[in-house]
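Hey, I was hoping to borrow your eyes for a little while. I'm sending you its amino acid sequence along with the C-alpha cells. Take your time with it, there's no hurry, and the full record follows here.
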Amino acid sequence: MNPSLVHLPWLAANLPGYFRFREALGSPERAQRSLLEDYLKTNADTAFGRAHGFASIRSAEEYRERVPLTKGEELAPWVDRIAAGEARVLTRSPVRALEPTSGSSSSPKLIPYTSTFQREIRRAVAPWIFDLYSHRPRLAFGSAYWSITPLAMEEERAGPVRVGFEEDSQYLGGLWGRLVDATLAVPGEVRHLRDPDAFRYATLKYLLMRRDLTLISVWHPSFLLLLLEALPRFWDDLVREVGRPDLKTFSPAHVWPRLGLISCWGDAHAALSLSELARAFPGVEIQPKGLIATEGFVTIPFRGAWPLAVRSHFFEFLLEDGGSPRFAWELEEGRVYSVVLTTGGGLYRYRLQDRVRVEGFLEKTPSLRFLGKEGHVSDLRGEKLHESFVAGALARVSGGLAARFAMLVPDGESGYVLLLETDSPVPADLAARLDAELSSNPHYRLCRSLGQLAAVRVRSLQPGAYARYLDRCRQLGQRWGDVKPLALSPLSGWEEALGVE
C-alpha cells in the first residue's frame, strides 16, 4: 500500500488526542488528578492496591503520604508474580507483555505493558505526531523509518507472559499499530536479526529502496551515524541488490530527496552528536525527542517546546535538596527535579531516576529538559562527579569540536581521562579547560587542590569507538535499545575496550 494513502487515517486517528492534549495544557492539575483517581479506583482490588489501601485514598496528597516511592528492585517481586501467571497483581488490566529495560549500568528490569498503558502511550504520541505532520505536511507524502528496539530479545517468554513485543508497532496496539506498519520503510521483522552486521545490512537495503523516505526516527543520533559508517563495506552489494544503478556514490540528498526530518535524542550527552548528524544530512531538520523511556512518556516535542505528557501518566518530582515531592502543577521554572511515575502499567510512585530542568511553561504545563540520569556517580577521592554535571562541562568545552564519541572515565585511581573520537584537531588546551570546568564542583576542586586527583588527560580513540562501546555494553548484559552513551562512566576498562590510539 502507498504510505501516502495511509497518513490520512493515521492523522485522523491522532486528531482527538491532539485536541485533548491542547486542552489539558491549560489545566494540568485537573488532568493529573483525574488520572490518579482513575488508577486508584480501577486498581483498588489488586494485590498491590489492597496492600496499600487504594480504596481509602481520596487525594493526590494522601497518595503521596501513604504509598512509598519505589525503584526496580522493589517492583521486581510483584513482577515475578505476574511472570508466573498470577492475575491482578499490579493492575486489573491484564499484562500483555513484560518489556525489558535497564539503565546504562544496571541489570535488566521487566516493565508490565497493559492495554491501559498502551492507551497512555497513544495519548502522548497523538499530539506529537499531529503537531509534527500538521506543521510539515510534506512528511505525510512518503514512508518513514522508525527504530524503537533495534534488536529482538533472545528470550521470548517469562513463564506464561511474553517478554517484549514481536514488532515495534505493537507498543501502540490495535488499529494504531496496523496504521503505523503501513507507513514503514523497513519491515518490522528486520529487528529479529541478532547479528549486528546482518541487521545493519538489511536496514540499509530497505532504506536505499525508498526514494520516498521523508522521516527518520531513531533513539540516539549515533545509531544513525553507525548505519552510515557501515555503508562503504556494503555499498557494492547493496546497490546491486536494490537495483539502483543511479547510486554511484552516497549522498543523502540523492538517495532520499524527500527526507525532511530526523527525530532523535538531543538532550544531555546526546547533544554532542547533533552537529555531526547535521553535517551528515545537510538541509534536513533535526528534532530532539522528548524524554521517553520504556517505563513511560515524560515529555513530547510540541509547538517548539517539550511539555510534560500530562494526559499519559501521573507525575511527581523530587527536589535535589529533599523536601516533599512536588506535583506537576507545582513546579518552578529553572529548578531541577527527579521524575517519579505512576502509570496504567502498574508502576506506582516509581523513581525513573531521570533529572530534568524546568525550561518554561506551555500555557500552564511545564516544559522540561532532560539533564541526565541519577546514580551515575564517580567518587574516587570524594569528588562526587555526577554524569549530568560532566555532560554539561563537556558541552561547554567542546565548542566547534565534532566529537563522534566522548566519555570521561577513571584513570586508574589517580584522576580522569577523556576518551575522545573526533575528526577535528583536538585543541591543545582541551584537557585544561575541562579540568577547570570540573573544578566548579567544590568537591572536585578540593581533591585537585589537595593533590588527591591528577589533572584530566585526553586520549584519542581509533575510529569506530561507539560500535565498540555498544559491543561492551552488550557483553555487560544490555540491549542496544537500552544503551545510552554516557558523558561519565565510573567503570574501569574502557581504554582497552574502546581502542586508544
Q: What stands out?
A: The CA atoms of residues 390 and 451 lie 20 Å apart.
